[in-house]
Amino acid sequence: MENFSLVFFIDVYNHQFPIHDLRLIGHEFIDISRTQNTEFNKVPMFMKTAPENIDPEKHPDLACIQSIIHDDHRTPEEKARSLKDEGNEYFKEKNYKKAIVSYTEGLKKNCMDIELNAILFTNRAAAHFHLGNMRSALNDATAAKKLKPDHIKAIIRGAQCSMELRNYAGASQWCDEGLGLIPTDKKLQELRATADKKKREADRDARKEKIKAKKEQNEKEALLAAIKERGIKLLKTEPSRHRGLDSEDGDGDGGVSRALADLELDGISSQEATGACVYMDEQGVLYWPVLLLYPEHSQTDFISAFCENSSFMDHLAVMFGEELPPWDSERKYQPQNLQLFFEDPEKGNLYQVDLEKSLLNVLQHQRCSVKAGTPSFIVLVSGSPFSKQFLSGKKVQRLK
Which segments in the chain show pLDDT lower than 70? Predict the structure, then answer.
């Protein structure tokens, strides 16, 4: 085929066209500007992209080329090599998924050329790497190195995959094998240095995390002991099925697991949305998350840190002082008008709390229990119609 670049006009089929719009194919001029693109797309030479599925009737030329590429009369080595080249073309186009398909088909030919198979594994590893399939890429790099232990590209790829998987010890091992073959390889030297640095950082972070976890464990055990010493009863909840912590101390007695499991079973962890939990300060004083319920208005108040030595009146005087809540339109919830109750979870009886008593004094009562790590109390307006209706039919006892 000849392309004419001289600009002059020629009469073709009684029309004048610039010659640069014409091409000589065989012995005929074809008007490129007037020929439909779809017609040219049928010619392999002019195709920009090949169809996904080649129909022999619609694309006989492509079917012929395809049959040549995948000619069954060729040896497995020739077929594998053609598929490798096909995969490389896809790889250059950054079509890594199709490249993987081609390399995989090449490996399926089971050719006896060990080096060719190693290249197919390495190239497929590269395609997987670019797609973020690090585990598959590492497996292919490992397979390539097994076939050809001195295949430096496979070794570099294995080191890179190990780095991405945060297996820094494994990355160092890959680098050491490669540097044993080529001590001056800069890529491996850089990877080795980075792997060493990352491993030191990971080890340091792991030590910090272990120390932190040990500290938290000790604090929880001390907190549990303090609660038990005070005689406060915690309602046990069903253990989570997914809980099954393993001890990392290597002492074999499962002490850490049992301690943490006990903490959960004893209901210390608050289920409130705020995540507030009971805690102990440096002086050994406990602070509880407390829930106040107002059934008359379907309202609640949440006190995140109620000191065990504080009385209920200390908090109510602030909560219902100068500014009353907007839902108390009748202005009934004055501190001196309020009654406080807790419920016995076993018998359903209500116990009226003296507002001047401390939280600790109430929690130590034999019928009081803490559920889900959060003591809860019912607040009513003394003598109100709702209070009389709410208490009707319930057994109410006043704490002594």
Answer: 1-72, 236-274, 400
